[in-house]
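Internal tracking record. Fields below are filled automatically when a chain is submitted to the structure queue. Please do not edit lines marked as system-generated. If the sequence contains nonstandard residues, flag them in the REMARKS field before resubmitting.
Queue: standard
Priority: normal
Entity type: single polypeptide chain
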Amino acid sequence: MRPQLGKDKILQAALSLFAQNGYHKTSMNEIAKGAGVSKGLTYNYFESKQALLLAIIEQASKKMFDVAEKMSTPSDYKSMLKIFLDQYFLFLKNNKKYLSFQLSLLFQPDLKKIVEGPLQQRAERLLSNTVIMFREAGASNPDLTARRFMSELDGIALHNLSVFKDYPLDEMHTQLFDNYKDLK
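SYSTEM-GENERATED OUTPUT FOLLOWS
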């Protein structure tokens, strides 16, 4: 087995088991079994279950950073906004299990302490890129516009993940673009 393949299998198994059973109720033995690898290999990549949890957060953060980087691609504002929203909504659709799990972490005080640093860094980087996008678009107050925009994205994600069963994600995508495409 290629080393990266084994590591990826462990990360995917851990995410699935954490999301299904909870972090505290999932053992490293179960993760190794779910990944189809030995427990020793699991510890070869991750010194502890906490290190594995942080690796899952880091992997998702990298994906979100890739989304955020789309905003800094030289282009006109509407194109940047469209590309960013397309990527963001695709991330929401393709990472529902992870995002639901992440949300659950924030309501468990002991786990929140573990993950809040990396999640805060991700949020700050995304906000920073969004401020730059709105500044370059000529928003009268790019910081507040970016914060409002990010709040709307968070609300959409929350509603999609946990509040409404048949959330109109595609329609919200279109609505958000329409609301921000012409800044004043």
